[in-house]
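Data card: per-record layout.
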Amino acid sequence: MASAGQRCAGCYGGIGRLEAAFSSECAHTFHPLCVSGAHTCPSCSAFWSFTPTFQPSPFQPQPARMPPPVRHDAAAASRSACGVCKCAFVYGSPTFTSECQHRFHLACATGSVCPVCNARWPYQVSCYPYLHPYQFPPPPPMPRPMPMWTSPFVDQPSPAVYDDDEPLEPLAAQGAPLDDWDLVQDAANGGGRLVLDAHCEHPAVARGEPHDSFVVLVHAKAPGAATAAAAEQTRTPLDLVTVLDVSGSMTGRKIALLKKAMDFVVDQLGPADRLSVVAFSTDARRPIPLTRMSDAGKVKAKGAVQLLMANGGTNILKGLTEAAKVLDGRRHKNAVASVILLSDGQDTYNLGGGGGGYGYGSVSYSKNYRALVPGSLLSGAGHRSTPVHTFGFGGDHDSSAMHTIAEETGGTFSFIEDEKVVQDSFAQCIGGLLSVVLQEALITVKCVHPVRVRAVKSGRYDSSIDAYARSASVDVGELYADEERRFLLLVDVPKAGDADEVTQIMKVTCTYRDTSTGQVVDVAGEDVAVQRPVEVAKDQQPSMEVAREKFRAEATEDIAAARAAAERGEYAEAARILDRRQEALLPALADDARCKALVEELRELSTRVASRREYEKSGRACILTGYSSHAQQRAASACVAGAGGGYRCPPPPGGAGGMGMGGAASVFGFGAAGAYATPAMQMMVGASRQVREQQQQQPATLKRKSGSDGVN
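The structure for this 712-residue chain is written out next.
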């Protein structure tokens, strides 16, 4: 039985509580018909050892005949053991859950009749082993290359636990109380509290008619920083681990640009922030422990980065495992913690079906990318996931792996095709991480009887609807200063009484933890209601706020559908999906800036999925970046050279957006970087570009100076 709020990893549609579901060996869940006949996972591209088939049954579905009595202990057993063989389910075994709420191993569920209750299913269930040609014989392991860099840390064995993090800065030194002017500015920004509001699809519904799937938009906006000085004094310190690829392909210009980008990151961190650097190639090492970025700490961090040398293979799992050890072993913890992962290649050691590492030139048995993420970075009992923000560097990285790592941990995936702007991409991410204002945000909606919730469109955020459809919730998690989230709720509004002029629909509240004070805050929005006239005016106008969000949500679903089509090799169909969404824009939204920008993005993505060559070159990375950004409503740009459209990267203060270092408009940002980038992100990107311009001007200045000295 599917849990409330669960989504199909193939079509991204909801799986109802009484709908059948197929769970793959790579731990993704689908509608049965979405994966019938598939031997690779539509979500992570893993090769399956069993190919499920769900063919339409010649018989009409019928309910169970003579169902056995259900006891609590039997129900619990049915969830943990197969209904046919009675063996327990283990991780990695494909399972099928029927409409009659019985669960089986895929190999045990054959036919169209439930073996437990004799209910007839709407399709014939079967499977057969699928042996991929890559599987036999396994390639022999290649010899490992030499260590990746020469530094004082290379000969030190990696301990089981890192518990040498530097103590936090004393609280008295981290911030100061706001003065009167800051409090005035704080009040102008919503009193330093999250702001909730809601918009109905239509202002009125006819009194004598019910309205099913009536759309309500719930909008939340995080408080903004009062002033730059106050923000620096009161912002929440950060524990950051950067996991950097230093494999052989990073030699030369790439690693030089990466070192400059890391120097910029170090300069932006304050004395209360802590940084640890992990470098990986064939193996992984931690050149610097979690260290406070005081003046001495910054010198230490920059020195460790400058010692990095490129050599060896690409072992992403080793790098993330070291990062997990750094965060897990902390004796002291800042409230905000995150990981930045950059890689320019494909993991050559950990994607084999046998679990062993294979060297260069080998082909993985399967592509279970989730296996690259250590368990402690994922959400589990009693703890949330640690966001891993991933950056695909150059055109040869594994965008599917980087996207999956980010998606599984709640991070974002960004594509850096134009290597010279890696510093700007880091800057946008750091601008957000240094402005986290609230965590553990949970938006709750309670309907007024007899209104019922039909569905919640929340993108990648977990949502749930209670058993009686009277309330729903969305787990928003962490928000940066000035960030916004919009969610659509579909509710069933019944007929109103003869004397009812207004129908109360719902009450919206949000609970979160303020990162600066650690206090739990409750915020209530205004009650949502709709007018109930006898007849609705013919000239009634729909809400543009709701229409804009519906277009964005539908575009996000189409981006996912286009990606699925392209992965099947149906490139023309992928382009048609994106083109149809552009044409579906309502005339009333034609001049809306955000919708126009989204249409430009869809147009650019359409050209990048239209052929296999374009899709393999940059289309997959661009479309994954776009989906990552829209599904989370968070800036995650793809900076590509020579783009014909899309969002320009956020402009620096007083500068022109999208301008390359030479002044040509050659670098663009996809994934709604313009729509989701907060003021803090834009300021940080502007600072990065100013630094790069100064670095570019220095050689020319020195050359002119040396020339004038020679003349004199």
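Known properties of this structure: Residues 193-229+436-540 form a domain with the Immunoglobulin-like fold (CATH 2.60.40.1510). The chain has four domains: 21-129, 143-161+237-434, 193-229+436-540, 546-676.

See the next section for split statistics.
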